[in-house]
Write a structure and sequence with these properties.
Rossmann fold, alpha/beta, single chain, seven-stranded mixed sheet, about 25% strand, about 160 residues, 6 helices
């Protein structure tokens, strides 16, 4: 059975909501085993056993969150040249931009020679004050629905060997 690994990190809950919505959608495909794992718990063997990846992370100070970056730092060279061609998608949760984190994640995926199979998505929370940035996030229904649809698309295409 093919395996979809959804790797996420969340600080205020936004990225976790996105990851859970993606997983909910992906689990509608019975031929795909969906694994939802926090970035700090992902090891090289998890990456090697997966057929595809969806990365979900918050943007912090214009780049990937430290724990998501730590995940890539810990695993990158251990699996280099062993993931070539596997499909991936990326979602970033950010207050106002998200492009810095997205560029960083996409460069790492390019280094792994992963195949981007859908446009990366940035979910904006519009949090601009210290209080809003630090508070627990509750994402709108549209963002969650779009995330779920990405999960459905990815797992269905993975099951059909489209990519």
């Amino acid at each position: 059975m093919k395996q979809l690994l959804i790797i996420f990190h969340s600080i205020t809950g936004g990225s976790e909501q996105i990851a859970r919505a993606v997983a909910q959608g992906a689990r509608k495909e019975p031929e795909i085993e969906v694994i939802l794992r926090q970035a700090q718990h992902v090891q090289p063997e998890h990456l090697l056993s997966a057929s595809g990846y969806i990365f979900v992370a918050p943007e912090m100070l214009g780049s990937l969150s430290g724990i998501m970056k730590d995940f890539f730092d810990r695993t990158f060279y251990q699996v280099l040249d062993e993931l070539n061609g596997r499909p991936y998608a990326a979602l970033i949760c950010a207050g106002s931009d998200g492009q810095g984190a997205l560029r960083q994640l996409e460069k790492i995926a390019t280094g792994w020679r992963l195949k981007k199979v859908t446009e990366s998505k940035v979910v904006l929370t519009r949090a601009q004050t210290k209080e809003k940035i630090l508070q627990t996030k509750t994402l709108d229904q549209h963002s969650l629905q779009t995330s779920e649809e990405l999960g459905i698309f990815f797992s269905s295409a993975l099951a059909l060997a489209v990519f």
